[in-house]
Specification:
Number of helices: 1
Helix content: under 10%
Radius of gyration: 15 Å
Order of helices and strands: HEEEEE
Shape: elongated
Length: 81
């Protein structure tokens, strides 16, 4: 068995390594404030979790989808759906 030195996951799901690739700006679905989020590319191609607004403190349902190019799309919805 030969070791190519690369991670097979990196080849099939290439993500950027810069800080800019791990940052997104999202408008709060409650108060409309634009909030900067730090994203985790290592968390998987599709991530769903709860994040509280820095301004109004209400919880959002976040969905982060990483494309094969390493660019993330982020969707924030109210807790009510």
């Amino acid at each position: 068995m030969s070791d190519t030195g690369g991670d097979p996951l990196d080849e099939s799901f290439p993500l950027g390594n810069s800080v800019a690739d791990a940052t997104a700006y999202v408008a709060c679905p409650y108060c409309g404030a634009e909030v900067e989020l730090t994203l985790d590319p290592g968390g998987g191609a599709t991530q769903r979790y709860v994040e509280d607004c820095e301004v109004c403190c209400r919880p959002w349902q976040l969905t982060v989808r990483w494309g094969l190019s390493g660019v993330a799309s982020v969707e924030a919805q109210t807790d009510e759906g």
